[in-house]
């Protein structure tokens, strides 16, 4: 196994996508990890963009596969995915972001969450609150423990001066960022978005056409 170091770009993006849908998997009791990324057919361009960033750690290109959602029997979807090889350079992040097989938010996330990280987190698991009617956005943090979601919201509030709130969704919690923080958020992260993901971010309209949320 070749020892490889992650560059700054890879580190900042990795933090963001691990808060999102990406995962780290180990077959060596935590000595090495591989990064696995999967996206819908709709987000194929985004997946290939991520592949290009981590390509030096892979040995095969992304693959397309069929996916069946158990919540919608009989309906089939196509997704794209790729995995890196097992690498020691992911060990630190594997230990920070996982408790066994369960994802967690690192205690020191405030040190690593850069604007680029937030942008990729949003492209991965963010959405407009009411598309076309509000400048508010949300992060789908449903799979994290409540205390972890609280920590993330605190970092966004304290480090980036964003007005946040937590709202329950099923058994989990999501982070909402107020439309009042739209300009701050856009200035911080929008320049890192790739073209195919720009649609996910709210577009300013005349105030009379918008519903301003908390």
In brief, what are we looking at here?
With 214 residues, the protein is α+β, with helices and mostly antiparallel strands. The protein has helices spanning 8-19, 44-54, 91-97, 109-112, 115-125, 146-160, 182-189; strands spanning 23-25, 34-40, 63-68, 76-83, 98-99, 102-103, 126-128, 137-139, 164-169, 172-177.
3D structure, described in words:
This protein is α+β, with helices and mostly antiparallel strands and 214 residues long. The protein has two domains: 20-99, Roll (Endonuclease I-creI), CATH 3.10.28; 109-200, Homing endonucleases (Endonuclease I-creI, Roll). It has seven helices and ten strands. It has a four-stranded antiparallel sheet, with helices on one face. Strands 7-8-10-9 form a four-stranded antiparallel sheet. Helix 1 (8-19) crosses helix 5 (115-125). The longest helix is centred in the last third of the chain and has 15 residues, at 146-160. The protein is globular.
Overall 3D geometry? globular
Query: Would you list the SSEs in sequence order as H and E?
Result: HEEHEEHEEHHEEHEEH
Summed over residues and divided by their number, the pLDDT gives a mean of 92
- Kindly name the structural category: alpha+beta
Which homologous superfamily in CATH is the superfamily of the largest domain?
Homing endonucleases
- How many helices? 7
For the secondary structure, the number of strands is 10
Radius of gyration: 18 Å
The fraction of residues assigned to DSSP E strands is 15-25%
**Proportion in helices:** 25-40%
CATH architecture label name of the largest domain = Roll
The main sheet comes to:
4 strands, antiparallel
N-to-C terminal Cα separation, in Å? 51 Å
GO biological process, one term: photosystem I assembly
Protein name: Homing endonuclease LAGLIDADG domain-containing protein
Signal peptide: 1-23
Pfam families: LAGLIDADG_2
